[in-house]
Amino acid sequence: MKSFITIEEILRRKYFNTSEMLAGEEGKKRLVKWVHVVESTQITHLLNGNELILTTGLGWKDDETLLLPFIKQLIDTHASGMCIEIGAHVSEIPQEVIKLANNHNFPIILFRQEVPFVEITHDLHSIIINKQYLLISKIESYSQELNKMLLEVNHYDQILKFMQNYLDMQVLILFNNQEYKAIPNIREDTLKQLVERVNQTKNQTDPCACKQSIQILGEPYAELVIYSQQRELNEFDLIILDRTATALAQHFLRDLYVEEKKTAEESTWIRSWLDGENSDEAIRNQLSFSHPRLKLHGAAVCICKLPPVTRKNSAVDRTYFKLLFRTMFEQVGFQIFPTEMQHHLIFILGDKRSPESWKERMADAFDRINNSERTGRKRMSGVAFGVGKYVFNLGDIYKSYKSAKEALVLQDSLTDENKSYFYQDLHMHRILSLIKEHSNLEETVKEYLEPVILYDQQFNGELMVTLKTYLRCNGSKQETSKKLFIVRQTLYHRLEKLEKLLGNDFMKSERRLAIEFMLLAHDYLLSTEKHSLLWYEI
User: Fold this and answer.
1) What is the pLDDT of residues 286-305, one digit of tens each?
2) Strand order through the sheet with 209-216
3) What is the DSSP-derived secondary structure letter of residue 11?
4) How many other β-carbons are positioned within 10 Å of the β-carbon of residue 155?
5) Which of 42, 333, 370, 421 would bridge with 353, disulfide CB 3.0–4.6 Å?
6) Cα(213)–Cα(199) distance, rounded to whole angstroms?
């Protein structure tokens, strides 16, 4: 199935019985999608590529030197070839033109006697249009059968088999979680070789293989691949590939919605799991019933805080976020168990892979959510996440839930430098939260840092910035001056001021540790507007 013909096929038509192939013999396989009669020597703006040009040479009859740039134009615009009538206006073709055409495998066909260009264009256009009509009819028929299948199929295998039978070539689907399936089945080593070949098509064109991304919610979910050992792929194959990829996306999205509805019904059980009401054995028994093939090595809880529902932020967004989370996290090896509580979406993330890489995989999923084109910064505005500690015993998920709530609360107190969704990364902030809860943290910070803060306020200085940078550079004056973009002498002057305000021993081990802790506490207090206003009233 194709909507074009080749130069080789055209040469077998009746009007070409007496034609002569003067140059570009190697270009007989070139595709022809349309035929133009041209007598002008400036035609670049008129061509789109794959046209066969018919001419009598009228445009250069008085100046044969115009023929060479004319042929260059045709080659540059990817025309399929040129047919020229010898005798009326042109007696011969210069050797330099023949050489150029041979170098680019550009066919030049001669008519030694008068031929009816009108009849030629009518004949060839009829073939091309009939092929296009047949192509469209076949595609429409395939699409109708495919849409009918979507109402009945229970597994994507049936769609792949339907496509494979229709095209009679190897079909392959590659999921983002590194799983793949071939229709028909092939040996494991052959399958791996085919996957490697397909992955190489990112950098180079393979005429016998093509892949199409399957998008769900604007994000890549899998790739559909077709491959033929017998022939090169044509336009029809690529359209069928595209239609099938779209159908698979609809099928997968429908499955996700069905799964989402199912998990909503499981919400009561999930909440009892979060509350620690079930043992590890009871949980695994429940999971073996609802997910027979599922094997979890551990789990963690993620809480997503969404902005309050408004007209602009409808309840549909919750379904969107749940589907987005499921898509992203399943691709990195997690089984998702979601539930909702007021403005929060709570996800138990069951780990199906090695526990050693759980945090890296989860961070990758968060990055993809935040960088998603469909999600966008505007849509993510006001959304916060908190991830609890990782537990190996599924009965201990309540511990992860509790720590996830703590991590979510601490998000407001984190600076951009210390930003992290993970409870285990918030070491000092957890301690600061406890201290603030049970003592007067503001007074403790003032005790250590008030002289420096007052100096900066009074003289518009930068001693606090200098102190932080100096400590981070482990007392290296050269590195500190580079990071602050100041000369060494200016740094020495600031350090003298710090010694007068904090004491000569501020870089000694225990005192330095206390000052570093107070600097962190100072940032913690300034992170909320309430504490910021109180602090600057000193």
Assistant:
1) 888 878 888 999 999 999 88
2) 180-183, 170-175, 219-227, 209-216
3) T
4) 10
5) 333
6) 12
Q: How far lies 303's CA from each of 50, 422, 459, in Å?
A: 56, 11, 44
Report strand pairing: 219-227 vs 298-305: unpaired
8 A C-beta contact, residue 278 and residue 334: no
**Which range (75-79, 92-96, 164-168, 415-419) has the least confidence?**
415-419
DSSP 159-190: HHHHHHHHHTSEEEEEETTS-EEEES---HHH
Instruction: Give every CB contact of residue 169 below 8 A, 6+ residues apart in sequence.
Output: 226, 227, 228, 230, 237
pLDDT at 331 over 60: yes
Residue with tokens 């025309």: 79
Could you tell me which of 96, 51, 57 has the C-alpha nearest to residue 74?
Answer: 51
Characterize 335-373 residue by residue with b for buried, 16 or more Cβ atoms within 10 angstroms of its Cβ, and e for exposed.
Answer: bbbbbeeeeebbbbbbbbeeeeebeebbeebbebbeebe
Mapping DSSP onto H, E and C, the string for 192-205 reads: HHHHHHHHHCCCCC
**Using DSSP, how many helices (H) and how many strands (E) does the chain show?**
20, 15
Stated length of the chain: 538
Residue 224 burial (CB count, 10 A): 25
Q: What is the pLDDT of residues 18-66, one digit of tens each?
A: 888 888 888 888 888 888 888 877 777 778 888 898 888 887 776 767 8
Does 436 have pLDDT greater than 70?
no
- Single out the residue of 502, 514, 516, 505 nearest to residue 474, CA to CA: 516
String of DSSP letters for 342-362: TTEEEEEEEE-S-GGGHHHHH
Residue 432: band (very low, low, confident or very high) from pLDDT cuts 50, 70, 90: low
Mean pLDDT of 446-451: 80
Nearest to 406 by CA among 432, 380, 388, 394: 388
What is residue 106's three-state secondary structure? Answer: coil
Query: What angle do the packed helices 316-331 and 358-370 form, to 10 degrees?
Result: 140
What mean pLDDT do residues 77-96 have?
A: 85
What was the pLDDT predicted at 30? 86
Structure tokens belonging to residue 66: 């115009």
CA dihedral 255, 259, 261, 262 (to 10 degrees): 140
The answer for residues whose C-beta is within 8 angstroms of residue 183's C-beta and 6 or more apart is 157, 160, 161, 163, 164, 170, 171, 172
- Largest Cα separation within the chain, whole Å, is 106
Which residue do the tokens 């009509």 mark?
A: 133
pLDDT at 538: 30
- Of 55, 24, 20, 23, the residue nearest 40 (C-alpha): 55
Measured between alpha carbons, how far is 137 from 133 in angstroms, rounded to an integer?
6
d(CA 362, CA 347): 12
**Taking a C-beta distance cutoff of 8 angstroms, is the pair 472, 519 a contact?**
no
